[in-house]
Here is the input.
Amino acid sequence: MIQETRLNQHSSLYIYTDQNSYEPLARIDKRGNDPERVMYFHTDLNGCPEELTDESGKILWECSFQLWGKRIHEIEHEPIEQNLRYQGQYLDRETGLHYNTFRYYDPDIGRFTQPDPIGLLGGFNLYQYAPNGLTWIDPWGLSGCSIKSGKNFKDHFIRHKGILERYFGKKYPKWKVDEGAEFLKDIETLRDSGKLIHVGQGTLKKGQPLMEIYRGEGMTYVAKKLPDGTEEFVTLIESGKGMDLGIFFP
Here is the structure.
């Protein structure tokens, strides 16, 4: 949502934290010949607006939410309608659903109301929003189950694919055949089925950017969360051994 205009000549322009982000920073309202009014968003960890204030810090609108976006209570201190929800979502007040570009999201159940447009290629959980509603986002309604290969993936695939081969009792195709696509899909399956559980954010070495850490079934999966809500494969290692012992949780 960049701008919306209502029948009463009231327009709202939305400003975001950066050009690749869906997290709102400010809203500029204009009504007819009246001066522009600038308001500022205060968001939760996942970028969902919790307050809207004026230039002096006065709260104009506020709302508290449950984990998956269901409203607990909403207060308009002034007659200002604020419909932005999770990043990339816009509230339809008639239905209570959130428009999420390619699908509608139902905050009452924490799931989409339509299946993934690409079917099983996106994973087995066709209606899933994201693995974790607190730290994950899906601005387009498409990315809840995707894992991108990322930098140095070939090297990590060749060195660590044996962990999954032993677990599943199979051999992965050579790199030239599918470039690790089946390997990534199996990690998605383990994650989406809950066998790999998100245990928090940590780093392989102190001072590095925070990574998403999953553990389960004797293995540790490390991923980087991207601005569009997808995740990038970093590595897969055995739990309780080697590199896993050095993971630092701040």
